[in-house]
Design goal:
The complex is a heterodimer of chains A (about 230) and B (about 260). Chain A has helices spanning about 5-40, 45-55, 60-70, 75-85, 95-120, 125-130, 135-145, 150-165, 165-170, 185-190, 195-225. With about 230 residues, chain A is mostly helical. The N and C termini of chain A lie far apart (about 55 Å). Chain B is an alpha/beta fold and about 260 residues long. Classes of the chains: A mainly alpha (about 230), B alpha/beta (about 260).
């Protein structure tokens, strides 16, 4: 068993938080226009796009991990991108994990934002248009503030879901300390090697964290619900 | 209400028939033995299992995984009856901790480590490791997988471990390590010889046995299987000439 090594615990925690922050930020940037389009578009095939976005909810992480391993690898687009700076693959890199996490957590961010955009209907935007606001202006000063609860929920869920990601990272990460050895993988390692003290500390922390996150989203929901948007 | 009832009828009937079929097949079966198998032995044990079933009528059910992970499940009352480990430490521990039956463990195979690359005609060997002309080298997690430990020992013995450390990527078990190399994500990797023995193509270097401790793979009868004839029969069959032939074919050795 040996002494308890705090750096062994801290490195995966920090890495995981970094991954979750970057992923959430990217998801807000990428997910908002998608959510907006899904909410406003009249295109008949938009539900097909919505389905693709939602698929990581249902697909086993092993399916995503398998395809990502091929896509990020030397024979896939990831390998091509890596080739631009002289590497061979995006697998086993922090960037690779970010790509995987963005895909994996996408539905958790897009869905709440889309719902929020749909909830306030056409009316506020029509009013903004009659007040001669440009669509761009109306988006930022009307739609985004009105959809704030959706953004908050999406950000919290996307963040939390990325923190808890395991299967995909196990398959594309390569377990490199400080680069791809995230919290869930570290816990798995500790359990496998019967280092149950360390496993308890990290796993217990995750339980508390999950409780706090879900409680926060529920309270957010209640608060905004009571204001009777 | 009527609609609701008829909507329920089909799933209920389906469930009932599934339960009947399941209980019938349990009766019809001679005996079943649940075997936990270290990932590297996946292919040979499937072949051995087919022969075993033909010879004895007993049905083996295999669960594959990393040795450490499987043993963890054993400590938490997993229903496995026989354990084919990738090392000799875990079966010894199983006996010591009261999960294995004393006196039943033996080395069913010794593993060979191989440095493997998907690229054809590559010169793999000590020199290749010393040159280190690759971005990533895959090994199995040395903390949980014996082939990973052997890989680290080999690199240390050759004095290249510190130089290569930054290029190492770890597979969760030897199967995943092979996957990293097979998909080309890592150019080279230390895998089990059994994984490439029957494959053509690629480049390989069988690591000389003197570069690492022997990878003795031990089997043990677990307490859950102590009274199961099929479990004992499987362990005996694994020692027999038919099984040995298959084990050899996959590039494993024996202690004797």
């Amino acid at each position: 068993m040996g002494e308890l090594d705090v750096t062994q615990l801290w490195s995966p925690i920090r890495l995981t938080i970094e991954l979750a922050f970057i992923t959430t930020a990217l998801l807000l940037v990428v997910g908002t226009p998608i959510a907006w389009w899904l909410a406003r578009s009249k295109a008949r095939w938009k539900e097909a796009v919505a389905t693709i976005v939602a698929m990581p909810l249902v697909l086993p992480p092993t399916v995503l991990g398998f395809y990502l391993l091929l896509l990020l690898g030397p024979n896939g687009p990831g390998g091509w991108i890596a080739g631009l700076y002289g590497a061979r693959t995006l697998a086993f890199t922090f960037g690779g994990l970010v790509i995987g996490s963005v895909i994996y957590s996408m539905p958790f961010v897009v869905q709440p934002i889309r719902n929020a955009f749909e909830a306030f209907g056409d009316r506020p935007l029509e009013v903004a248009a009659t007040l001669r606001a440009s669509p761009w202006d109306a988006f930022w000063s009307v739609a985004v503030p009105l959809a704030r609860p959706g953004f908050l929920t999406g950000a919290i869920l996307g963040f939390a879901h990325t923190i808890g990601e395991f299967g995909v990272i196990l398959m594309i990460g390569g377990n490199i300390p400080g680069q791809t050895k995230v919290l869930s993988v570290a816990i798995y390692d500790f359990v496998e090697t019967q280092h149950w003290t360390e496993a308890h500390i990290l796993a217990g922390g995750m339980v508390v964290f999950s409780f706090a996150v879900i409680l926060a989203t529920m309270m957010l929901g209640r608060r905004y619900g009571q204001q009777g948007r | 209400m009527r609609m609701r009832a008829s909507w329920l009828k089909f799933p209920m009937a389906a469930l009932a028939s599934v339960m009947i079929v399941a209980s019938m097949s349990a009766v019809a079966r001679a005996a079943e033995v649940k075997v936990a198998v270290a990932a590297n032995f996946t292919e040979p044990v499937k072949e051995i299992g087919a022969l075993f079933e033909k010879a004895t009528g007993h049905k083996p059910v295999f669960s594959f995984g990393p040795t450490g992970g499987l043993y963890n499940q054993v400590t938490q009352a997993a229903p496995f009856e026989v354990f084919l480990s990738a090392d000799d430490k875990t079966p010894a521990k199983a006996i010591k901790e009261g999960h294995g039956v004393a006196g039943t463990s033996y080395t069913y195979a010794t593993g060979k480590l191989v440095l493997y690359s998907k690229t054809e005609g590559q010169k793999l060997g000590e020199q290749a490791l010393k040159d280190g002309k690759f971005a990533k080298i895959a090994i199995a997690n040395p903390k949980t997988a014996p082939y990973g430990t052997a890989a680290v020992e080999t690199m240390q013995k050759l004095g290249v471990y510190d130089a290569l450390k930054g290029k190492i990527v770890e597979g969760n078990n030897i199967a995943q390590t092979f996957q990293f190399v097979d998909t080309g994500n890592a150019e080279v990797g230390f895998v089990a010889y059994s994984q490439v023995a029957l494959k053509s193509g690629g480049s390989r270097w069988v690591v000389p046995a003197k570069l690492h401790n022997t990878i003795a793979q031990d089997a043990v009868l677990l307490k859950t299987g102590a009274n199961n004839e099929a479990a004992k029969a499987f362990l005996a069959f694994l020692k027999g000439p038919e099984a040995r032939k298959i084990i050899e074919k996959y590039g494993y050795g024996f202690v004797d």
